[in-house]
Structure formats: structure tokens, C-alpha cells
């Protein structure tokens, strides 16, 4: 059973930067496609970014394109989300999710759907003050 642990969330001022990490319990994490979502209070879970198992492809929501960068280090079983120019609207709990593609290819829209992901972490709180 793959376990994911997010870290790096904290209180930051608007305009600041943070790097979130999603660490996995198993080295097989390198075989999983991984995404970051967030959920603000009273709102639905929102797709932010995804990365293929080998890092060859990345996807971004329009709302974070140019500000957020996803990356991974498979030898460390970790996926990162670098966030810059943070805004108060970025305040949310940030989650990473993972699914194993098993050799199959998926449409871009598939990655945007939180139901595609089989494993989730507990989340890390990001609060951006104005």
C-alpha cells in the first residue's frame, strides 16, 4: 500500500515562495504518475499540476501556470511543487495524489480529475497572508 506524506506548508506573505514535497513510502513510487491538488475551505478540490512517472510530461492548471513548477526525484521517492509569487487566494490544504499507469496512456483531461488518483496524502496547509 503506497503511502504519501506532504510537507512544506506554512504561513507565508503574499509574493513569497514555498516548496512542497510529497514523499512516498515505496521505491515503486517511480512508476506512478503524481499530481498536486488543493482544497480551500468551503471549495472543491482543485487540480494544480501533474507529472508523469518518468518526469517526461507535466501538466498545469491555468491558474498556476508560470507560478508553480512540479518536479520529481525518483531516487528520493519524492515529488515537489515549487510555488512562487504566492497570493492570498493560494491559501488551501495541498494534497498529492498518485496512480500507476501500468503502461497505459491517458488523456490530459484524465490527470485533472481527482478520481483518477488511487493514493493520497493527508495534506499540508499553505496560508498566504496579504
Task: Quickly describe the structure.
The protein has 130 residues and is mainly beta.
Low-confidence runs of at least 5 consecutive residues? none
Order of helices and strands: EEEEEEEEEHEE
Q: How many whole angstroms does the radius of gyration measure? A: 14 Å
Calculate the mean pLDDT score and round it: 96
DSSP summary: helix tally: 1
Key features of this structure:
4-stranded antiparallel sheet, mainly beta, single chain, 7-stranded mixed sheet
Characterise the protein shown here.
This protein has one helix at 108-111, and strands spanning 4-7, 11-13, 18-24, 33-39, 46-51, 58-60, 68-73, 78-83, 92-99, 119-120, 124-129. It is mostly beta strands and 130 residues long. The strands form two sheets. Strands 2, 4, 5, 6, 9, 10 and 11 form a seven-stranded mixed sheet that branches. Strands 1-3-8-7 form a four-stranded antiparallel sheet, with no helix packed on it. It is globular. The termini are far apart. The mean pLDDT is 96.
Per-chain topology:
Layout: E1 4-7, E2 11-13, E3 18-24, E4 33-39, E5 46-51, E6 58-60, E7 68-73, E8 78-83, E9 92-99, H1 108-111, E10 119-120, E11 124-129
Parallel strand pairs: 2-11
Antiparallel strand pairs: 1-3, 3-8, 4-5, 4-9, 5-6, 7-8, 9-10, 9-11
Amino acid at each position: 500500500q503506497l503511502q504519501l506524506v506532504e510537507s512544506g506548508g506554512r504561513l507565508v506573505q503574499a509574493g513569497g515562495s514555498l516548496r512542497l514535497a510529497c514523499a512516498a513510502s515505496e521505491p515503486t513510487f517511480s512508476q506512478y504518475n503524481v499530481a498536486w491538488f488543493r482544497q480551500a475551505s468551503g471549495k472543491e478540490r482543485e487540480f494544480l499540476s501533474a507529472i508523469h512517472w518518468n518526469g517526461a510530461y507535466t501538466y498545469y492548471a491555468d491558474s498556476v501556470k508560470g507560478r508553480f513548477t512540479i518536479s520529481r526525484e525518483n531516487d528520493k521517492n519524492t515529488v515537489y511543487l515549487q510555488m512562487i509569487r504566492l497570493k492570498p487566494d493560494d491559501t488551501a490544504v495541498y494534497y498529492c495524489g498518485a496512480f500507476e499507469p501500468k503502461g497505459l496512456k491517458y488523456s490530459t483531461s484524465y490527470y485533472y480529475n481527482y478520481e483518477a488518483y488511487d493514493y493520497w496524502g493527508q495534506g499540508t496547509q499553505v496560508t498566504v497572508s496579504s
